[in-house]
Write a structure and sequence with these properties.
alpha/beta, Rossmann fold, 5-stranded parallel sheet, 42% helix
Length: 116
């Protein structure tokens, strides 16, 4: 099953809704692992070490840093980039669907954008 890490600014309501739909989901927040206020490249490196896909709303920097890792031949388990303009119910449903349909290897070196 896919493991996730939610970045510092990921919507808590979305995270709670996703956990209600999928209580067995293995997800941590960067705040829970002492990575609050940590630069994106370090969070992506930690996510790679832990084999966790990053949940984020950050379109401005995360995709570039993620693909920098790929170009450098560094591991990048994936990013789920959720638009913060997306209705919360739709975001939860689309993430739920992705988590059921994708395997970790399907996400490797990829930034998946939501809405799908």
């Amino acid at each position: 099953m896919i493991k996730l890490v939610a970045d510092e600014n990921f919507d808590e309501d979305l995270l709670r809704g996703l956990l209600r739909r999928l209580p067995e989901l293995n997800v941590v927040r960067v705040q829970d692992v002492n990575l609050a206020e940590t630069p994106d490249p370090i969070i992506l490196a930690w996510a790679a070490e832990q084999e966790r896909i990053l949940l984020t709303h950050d379109r401005n920097t995360v995709p570039d840093f993620a693909y920098d890792r790929v170009r450098a031949g560094q591991p990048m388990p994936g990013v789920f980039l959720v638009s913060d303009y997306m209705p919360k119910g739709q975001a939860i449903e689309e993430l739920f669907l992705a988590l059921h349909c994708l395997a970790p290897e399907d996400c490797k070196d990829q930034v998946h954008y939501f809405p799908l």
